[in-house]
Design brief:
Helices cover about 25% and strands about 30% of the residues. It has about 200 residues and is an alpha+beta fold. It has a 6-stranded antiparallel beta sheet with strand order 1-2-3-10-5-8. The chain has a 3-stranded antiparallel beta sheet with strand order 7-6-9, with no helix packed on it. Strands 4-11 form a two-stranded antiparallel ribbon. The longest helix has 19 residues. The protein is globular and about 45 Å long.
């Protein structure tokens, strides 16, 4: 099962809703376009991280948001657009104020990569599914270290890294614990989570 335009991910930890607007089909493998609705007084969906080759562009559609680039927190309002370049640490926008905030996020790869689109979006969907089962910490990371290792391995394969740990350490974890976890049957993407979830699931 592949993720296609119209796919919806509901994050039970943050009550956010992500709608996939474009996948590799519409972008010729160069990335994706998402629309995310964020609820006030919640943590961001994804912890601080970086991409080695991707460029991300964010546009605030409604509401007010905070975000971080290279450790500096900034505020964005309706109509504001900002770009995160490769290797810049960042945190995606999260709602501030009293109303929901909506933003659009486009990811553009340096080179076409059909696999990266499906695998990374699949990790997001699978992590949300695991969260509904109580298997994810409030920061969005799986509680089981073996599950965390395979999720990290998939993101690292496509140039995505957690900003809280040195990149060489993450590469070591992927090469050791990640390999063991895959051998034991853990996966970063689970087919049972690749279906649209109802808002109150």
């Amino acid at each position: 099962m592949k993720i296609r335009a119209g796919f919806v991910i509901h994050n039970p930890l943050t009550n956010s809703k992500t709608v996939v607007l474009k996948t590799e089909v519409e972008t010729q493998g160069r990335g994706w376009l998402l629309e995310v609705e964020s609820v006030p007084n919640n943590l961001p969906d994804i912890a601080e991280h970086l991409h080695t080759t991707w460029t991300e562009t964010f546009e605030i559609i409604s509401g007010e948001a905070n975000y971080k680039i290279d450790g500096i927190q900034k505020t964005a309002r309706v109509g504001d657009v900002f770009v995160v370049h490769p290797r810049q640490t960042h945190i995606h926008p999260w709602a501030v104020g009293n109303s929901n905030m909506v933003y659009r996020q486009s990811n553009v790869f340096a080179q076409p990569n059909l696999e990266a689109v499906q695998e990374v979006l699949g990790v997001f969907a699978s992590t949300a599914g695991l969260a509904r089962e109580g298997k994810v910490h409030p920061d969005g990371k799986p509680k089981n270290p073996l599950q965390l290792a395979v999720s990290l391995a998939t993101l690292v394969r496509h140039g995505g890294y957690d900003a809280s740990l040195p990149i060489p350490l993450q590469n070591f974890v992927v090469a050791t614990l990640g390999r063991l976890a895959f051998a034991m049957g853990y996966r970063a993407v689970y087919p049972e989570y690749l279906s649209n979830q109802p808002p109150n699931s």
